[in-house]
Design a protein that fits this description.
Blueprint (H helix, E strand, L loop, with lengths): L1 E5 L2 E4 L4 E8 L7 E7 L6 E7 L5 E3 L7 E6 L4 E6 L8 E12 L2 E8 L3 E6 L1
Parallel strand pairs: 2-11
Antiparallel strand pairs: 1-3, 3-8, 4-5, 4-9, 5-6, 7-8, 9-10, 9-11
């Protein structure tokens, strides 16, 4: 499975973006997927996860109410709608495929996308 993330950009605080992740290659209907982010000087952290077949979302508390994860099986695509952006949301956002969703979100990572930069100005 190859993952291609897009949709990042420069946005003012309070703005919105829609990140997309297109999957290609072998079918991955049994996978779970998710979005991570990594800010400069910080570790990569999980933002949201979703079961691929059932579409059950899991959003981390620190972005709950602002970020929405979804997927479109027919388009082999994963999305992250981000609203009410804050400067602290500035990071490179990565999509990933994994084998399960555990207590810490998406686990058993098998594939990473290349990342898309989100920059929020104050």
């Amino acid at each position: 499975v190859q993952l291609q993330a897009s949709g990042g950009g420069l946005v003012q605080a309070g703005g919105s973006l829609r990140l997309s992740c297109k999957a290609s290659g072998s079918t991955f209907s049994s996978y779970a997927m998710g979005w991570f982010r990594q800010a400069p000087g910080k570790e990569r952290e999980i933002v949201a996860s979703i079961t691929w077949r059932g579409g059950v979302p899991y959003v981390e508390d620190f972005v709950k109410g602002r970020f929405i994860i979804s997927r479109d099986i027919s388009k082999n695509s994963l999305y992250l709608q981000v609203h009410s952006l804050k400067p602290e949301d500035t990071a490179v956002y990565f999509c990933a495929a994994g084998s399960r969703i555990g207590s810490r979100g998406l686990e058993g990572i098998t594939n990473w996308g290349q990342g898309t930069q989100v920059t929020v100005s104050s």
